[in-house]
Specification:
98 residues; alpha+beta; Aminopeptidase; five-stranded mixed sheet
């Protein structure tokens, strides 16, 4: 895959969002979360525009969430079916998943 995926994270109050864009393509992918506490978030939704299907954006969003959880020291409650499915494929993420 030659097109770079760029992911930005924003947070406002108890809500957070990762937004992914792919170079040369329209549309965005997003992963939203809710902060339960300083050390725990709920991953509640992942959505990717049809134009980005097959580009790896969804998985890249979850991998960024995992990396941020490890770096910032929070745990993830995977309510989102996509995040939950990815976690089942990656048991090595158990250090940051609940």
């Amino acid at each position: 895959m030659s097109n770079a995926i760029v992911i930005e994270r924003s947070e406002s109050g108890s809500k957070g969002r990762y937004e992914a864009r792919v170079e040369g393509k329209d549309g965005v992918g997003e992963l939203t979360y809710s902060r339960m506490s300083e050390s725990k978030i709920i991953a509640d939704h992942t959505g990717v525009d049809d134009s980005l299907r097959g580009t790896g954006v969804g998985k890249a969003l979850v991998e960024r969430l995992i990396a941020d959880a490890r770096q910032d020291g929070f745990k993830i409650v995977p309510l989102c079916p996509y995040v939950k499915a990815q976690y089942q494929r990656h048991p090595e993420w158990s250090d940051v998943m609940e």
